[in-house]
Amino acid sequence: MAASKPTISVEVVSDIVCPWCYVGKRRLEKAMQQFEGKAQFDVHWLPYQLNPAAGSEAINKVQYYNDKFGPARTAQIIPNMQSTFASEGLQYSIGGETGNTRRAHRLMAWAAKEHGLAKQDALAEQLFEGYHCKEQYVNDTDFLLAAAAAAGLPRDAAAAALEEAGPGEALVQQELGKFSGMNGVPHFVVNGRHRVGGAQSPDVFAELFEEVLQQQPAAA
User: What pTM, to 2 d.p., does this model score?
Assistant: First the structure.
């Protein structure tokens, strides 16, 4: 019997409204593709809130950036993100509204727990793309449920997971404090101990994966 491929776990601490988290997802995927046939990956998305104090009401995205960074800095950030996204085959848009991401994180945590990491990753893609490329509001119920449906998740159960009293909130509370000492996201933890901060190049991830494979015994 041929030996099975070793498994590398990758925990990704991120927030849906973080553009660099979506860039990091693409770069991670490129690195993992280099190991097709050599390893398999379990990618688990964990919550982080860049603005946990955000209210439930929508805020114009450009206005939020202007208030946080100032108009001059915002004018530099937008074309930089557009260029960075384009280099990853994505189209960045600053249009639309932003807001609290707690309900999105509840949905993500529930998806992983009840339907597995592959479904959660598919949901992450829908949420990132919708928010950063299609000007969808991150706290809009219709958007969140449409993203869940597109990822192959049951709509009624997804709707329940969005609620504070639902199954997602307890999971988010457990997961928020899993890793300490982070100054920002994305933050990647490989096999529970190797940390990579920021949306690094695929080569950085690939080098770490190669190192991890050399350190762990081959799967039987």
Answer: 0.94
